[in-house]
Amino acid sequence: MSAAGDVTTGSTPDPVVEAAKWLATGSADRTKALVPQLQDKFGLTALQAVQAMRESRLVQARAH
């Protein structure tokens, strides 16, 4: 039962984490609002987009 859960988790990346990584690498167009960009590119809700923005700051902080 847990093995099936692990397989599912491993094969489906979390879109919030993926969006955070994308933001942390500087790939976003900083001249435009970030929430709509994240919603369009990753299919996130507004709440998930904000969570991705917060997570991206943590990713950047860990890198320094």
What would you say this structure looks like, in words?
With 64 residues, the protein is an all-alpha fold. It has one domain (14-63). Helix content is 73%, strand content 0%. The protein contains 4 helices and no strands. Helix 2 (15-24) crosses helix 4 (46-63) and helix 3 (34-42) packs across helix 4 (46-63). The relative contact order is 0.18.
Quick tags:
single chain, 64 residues, mainly alpha, 73% helix, globular, disordered N terminus
Total count of helical runs of at least 4 residues: 4
Backbone CA Rg: 13 Å
The termini sit apart by 39 Å
Strand content: under 5%
Give a quick account of the main beta sheet: strands, pairing sense, barrel closure. Answer: none
H and E order: HHHH
How would you sum up the global shape? globular
Task: Tell me the domain tally.
Answer: 1
Low-pLDDT stretches: 1-7
By secondary-structure content and strand pairing, the structural class works out as mainly alpha
The count of DSSP E runs of length 2 or more, i.e. the number of strands, is 0
- The pLDDT mean sits at 87
Helix content: over 70%
